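Sanity check. The docking grid for zinc ion depends on where the pocket ends up, so I'm generating a full predicted complex first rather than guessing from homology. Inputs follow.
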Amino acid sequence: MNDCIFCKIISGEIPSERIYEDDDMIVIKDINPQAPVHLLMIPKEHYADVTCLDGNRAAALGRCLAKVKDIAEAIPQLKDGFRLINNKGESAGQTVSHMHVHILGGAYIGDKLI
Ligand code: AMP
Ligand code: ZN
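Predicted complex below; grid placement will be based on this.
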């Protein structure tokens, strides 16, 4: 996916603040943070969004989500909690068509969804 900004970040063509990497994903700091801690969990395989999941992708995404505990525990600001968000499509505000999950926290971010 030559034009995909997240593929370029994964390959290193575009720099990022990478805080974690394994075979399935990278986790980077969002360039435009919406909370004191705003991370992006980005599967290495390019696919547009959650509706593109098949069995293999769901298994890989499951392995990514299973790492959230360790990633969060390594960041003291997330000790009181955090929120995961996944946007699909224009009306949800998805701007990068490469599946990713936002991890937001580091302050009281409210008890409402948005
Ligand atoms: P979404 O709106 O759900 O598609 O989220 C895309 C996110 O990617 C936004 O929060 C952007 O701030 C973030 N973003 C875009 N470009 C970069 C980049 N080069 N490095 C880090 N985060 C980025
Ligand atoms: Zn991509």
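Relevant for the grid: The beta strands are 18-21, 25-29, 37-43, 82-85, 101-105.
Also worth noting: The radius of gyration is 14 Å.
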